[in-house]
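Troubleshooting entry. Yesterday's outputs looked truncated, so today I'm pasting the complete records for two proteins to confirm everything comes through intact. If either block looks cut off, that's the bug. Protein one:
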Amino acid sequence: MPEPTARLDECSTPDYRGLFGWPVRWQGGAPVLVTGSGIGAVLVPRSLSDQVLYSLSRQGCAGPALSVPTRRGSVVLLLVEADAPAFDLQPLPDGVRVLTAGTTIPLPDERRPDDLSHWIVEPDTHQRWLPSLAAVLTCIRSAGRVPLDFALTYPPHRRAG
């Protein structure tokens, strides 16, 4: 099978299903990702997101992350590989949630000027794997150990421009 060559910045709405194999459907004229079938998401409050993204990058677990508006402000959603359950007795930080299967996540759509969702860390067509749910949860728990001022001044995670 030929390697996908389209880049995210070459078209207004990438073929997420074709490029990454994600379960995407159209809802209300916009693309949404549906969790389940091996792909999941972890919701992180914006107040923790810089520390979490730094921790993920530092541990080699960085994957696609998007900012999504909610009624209470924006949150960051981390896409994860969810084929294996992640059991752990340690609680997650306040506000962090693993989204259930069947949750729809609005994907950025540049054709819609009212779309406020945007990539913080864009999916990479050359690295199409997603970090495991267990690894991401471990990094989230350890993110509190990184001094906030260091995480904010030296974020090695890729930011969408």
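Protein two, checking that the full record survives here as well:
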Amino acid sequence: MAPVSKRSPAYQRMSPKLAGRKRSIPSPKQQLSTVLENENFLAVWLACGRFALSLGTIPNTAITAFENALRYEPANSEALNGFADSVIDSPMSPNKVDLLKHLVDTLNNAMNISQNAKIEIRLWAKLSEAYILLEDYPKARNTITSAFEITKDDSYSWLMLGKSSARLGLVREAIDAFRNCLSLLPPQIATEDKFNIARMARLELASIGLNEGNMEMAHSELTSTLTLPLPTKEVDLKEYTTILRMISVYPFCVLHFCPLKTSLHIMPKSLLLI
């Protein structure tokens, strides 16, 4: 069949809008205007996400803001970290699993298209934490182990290795990971995220000590844990309370560790009912 001529009536009927029109190419001024417009939108969504995340009470708003920022720049570091934090810190809900799966896809995609994202150790650690929350412990461990090719000086990454290893029954590896995590923290902790890392690492070690029958280790780590301030974020407080409640049922704790009972008494009642 012979091709239809652009001047023929048939072509005019098929594509009246395209017929005779030349493809327009944006001028340099128009292209610059588009770039600046995208940068402005990106900055606005990042600011919205930053503000929502700082409040700690509207995670869905933070998730939406950072997700919109990533539409303009899929490998933007602040947007990726903010999106990861807001998803991980969001309360349990029917769509939490879907959000975590979306986070995993988003981080993996960013690492595939951006070398900067690929070498950012915190993104690897947050990807590992997402796998832990999805209970995919082998992937969590493999992810964070691969990230140690970038650096071994990040305490949060060692915490993720310890958590994934502990849930896989790799007790010695988990203990070493938690010890490395704590050794990388500053002597005088001053930030909430560092307190959270120290708190969770020591609680995990206390739990391992009790499970392994090492009461000296359990006592030492519980004592150190209870000297730290309580978490401020609801999601961290829930995890902290859950582990303390699990530990408190051990006869050793019930009979010999009154500070643990005291700590549970000062928890919000709403958390003690979960």
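Both blocks look complete. Sanity check on protein two: Residues 13-20, 28-33, 254-274 have pLDDT under 50 and may be disordered.
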